[in-house]
Structure formats: C-alpha cells, structure tokens
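Incident review: delayed structure delivery

Summary: a single-chain prediction request sat in the queue longer than the usual turnaround. Root cause was a stuck worker, restarted by the on-call engineer. No data loss occurred. The affected request and its eventual output are reproduced below so the record is complete for anyone auditing the incident later.

Affected input:
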Amino acid sequence: MGNNQSAMSDPLPRNRMLWPMLMACMLLGVGVIAGQARADVLTDIAHLFPATPRSYVQASALLRELGETSPLLTVQSIGQSHGGRDIWLATVTDPDYPSQDKIRLFIIARQHGNEPAGTTAALGLLAHLVRATSPAERALLAQFQISVVPIANPDGAVSGRRANGHNVDLNRDWGKFTQPETKAIRAAVHRRMAHAVVDLHELPAHSSKRSYQENFIETIGAHGSLPAILCDNTVAASHNISYWMSKYSYPLNVYYDYPGESLRMCHRYWGLSEGRLAFLCETKTGRGRSLGQRAGFHVLAILGIINYLGRQQSSALQAAVPELDRPAAPAEAVTSSPPLETPLRLSLGLEPYSGADGPQVLVRTQVEGSGDFGFVMIKLNGTTKALTNERNGRCLLNTGNLAAGAYAISAEVHDADGMVLVAQQATLNLPLTDLQVAE
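Output delivered after worker restart:
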C-alpha cells in the first residue's frame, strides 16, 4: 500500500473526545441538549431528503452552496467521468482539529447511475452536519473526518442507467481500474488515508436471487489469514448496525466475505486487498419503499458504523455509562407489573435452492420468546457466513464450491451485546440429498 501503511498501522486513532455525550445526544435515539428534548438524528436528516431524486446538476449546485456557506465542508473535483463530468468529493469535519488524530470515513454513493438513494442519503447527511450547532454534533466533527462521493457515476446518473458512459459497470472494475471514475476514487481514498469505506447501493424490486430479497450488508468475516483487528472491527460493527436497524424496524441480513472472493467489487477490494474496514450497503426497492425510506436505511447504516468506531476510542468512559449506547425509552407511569420474559427458543430449517448462482441452501430461522433478542448468526463448519436481525429470518448459503461430504450448519441467537443465548445445529450432506436438523 506504499504511503498508506501508516493509515492502517493504527486502524482507529486514539483521541480524547467525550463519546458518552455524543451517543446520548447525537447518535441514534432521543437525546437531551440544554434541557430540551430533540428528535433523533435520523429523523432530522430525513427531513432534508427531497421527494424525488436530485439530478447531477442539482446535486452539484447543492454541494457548491453548502461548501460556500460553511467552513466545515470542502468540495473539490477529484477527476472527470468518461463523459467529462466532474466527480465531486465533499469532506465534512472540524478544521480546528488535526486530521491525523481523527477517524477517517469514506462514503461512496451511486456507482450505479440508476440507484439514487445513496446520493440522497449522502447529501442529507452532509447538509445536516454542516448546519449542526449542538455540542454533540460538533464533537462528532472534531473526532471524525467524513469524506463523501455523492455521485460516483455522473454519466450513469444523467442517463439513468447502471453503467458509466463507456458502458462499464463500475462496481465490477475494482482491482482492474480501467475507468476514470474508479481510478479517481481510489486515489482519493488513499489521499484521505481512510480507515473505513462504505459503498451505498440499491437492490431492484424483483430479483431471481434469494439473497437479494431483502436489505443486506456485506462486510469482511473473521478469517485466520486476515488481520485480526480488521475482522474484529468489521464483524462487531455489523452487530451494531443490525441492532440499530432492528430498533428502527429495518429488516436486515448481513453476509460475510473471505479470502478467495472476487475483488472486482468495491468493498471486497478495500477489505480483502487493502485491509481497510469495508461495508457494502444494499437497500431494497419496491413494495412501497419510498426514496426517503431507502435513503434512511443508508443513513442508519452509516450512523451505526460511526457509533461503533467512535466507541472504540473511549472504552473506559463507555464502561461507566453503558446505557448511553441505546435509545432512551420514554418515561411512563407504572400501572401494572411488567410481563414476565419467556425463554428464547430457536428452530432451524434447511431447504435446497437452485438459482442463477448454482446450488445453494436456504437457511430458515425462527426465534420465539420474549428474551433480549439481538440477532441470529449463521455459521458453516464454525465460520460465520451470515447474520439476520429478523426473528423469522432467511439467509442463502452458496454450496456450489463445496466438495461432497457432511457439513455442520449452526444458528446462534445473540442478545444486543453479542452474547449467545440459544443455539441449534443442522447437518448438511452434499450433494444435496439429505437436509436434517440434528437433535
């Protein structure tokens, strides 16, 4: 990685900001500032979303306006698309604090020109942060440098198509870097020495792939050949994102990548090739999901990552105020005894599935009971493959590259803190002739 090695030698730089205050007032949930209740930040940002997607020209004009009116935001062109349009990079941070002491997050939106929700989310987040005046939000900008490419594919955005002006799918060009857009963004990530990269996408309303039937996030799983600090952070961050998604009623599956996967996709390149924290965020279109709802998914994913990364810097302070990590419940008069919790129960089922990607197994999980449900982790021979925050979950496992034999599939119910509450195991015999849950 050349001159970028220093950025990863200390993946999350130490600093002195008071994160307990930040999580009480800025990040998700209801906060109180100067004695006055305020709406949660996701709602605040959603109020800035337009009813319809902004065009490339409109997005460019908004970036110029925000950059001219706030010292917190810098806007620059990092190159031109195949069609000669500027690729804008906007960076929001408090310039009074040195960037080398900050956590540096890089967000890429709209590699596919017909997926506008990422742009809407990115511009809403920028507009909110540059106008923020609360102590907590200013503390965020003192600790983080957030760089955003709101439209990575200007030509596709203008024409309303997936590919760029040279008819190339940019999210299949990483590692090869044949296109001016991917070359420019790669150079910008290196200049910013980003610790984490987030790539925002949308899923079509209808898809032949079962794994594409719901919102999902893809990131790096735990593997012995990868740096432990990379795996620990990506997996733990995915747990945190899942927790917040469930609090805001966003269904979510999480899938994990490992060495040997194709590096043509953006998040895999950054995670598996360069060792940076990397997340692919895919929100589902259709079924009445508005632009605002889809953009809200992306904002919530970004805030979940920020929430996790920031907490790594103040573990001692966080231990003293553990409940500030969760949304505060409204005060209510106690009129009756609270309902008794019933133990969580887990059922696990496997179904063979043959789709466009070859032979696969659909893993169905059902969680019953009223205990502290956080998420369900799916493992194949002890290796984590997927996560779902739904009690009635569905995850798809690719078996086309597995040799014949017996494999153990396990499902674990975790609470919000990651503790295993109940587990179930299934036996998978390949080729797919016998799928039976072990007693």
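Verification: Residues 196 and 277 are 4 Å apart (CA to CA).
Action items: add queue-age alerting; document worker restart procedure.
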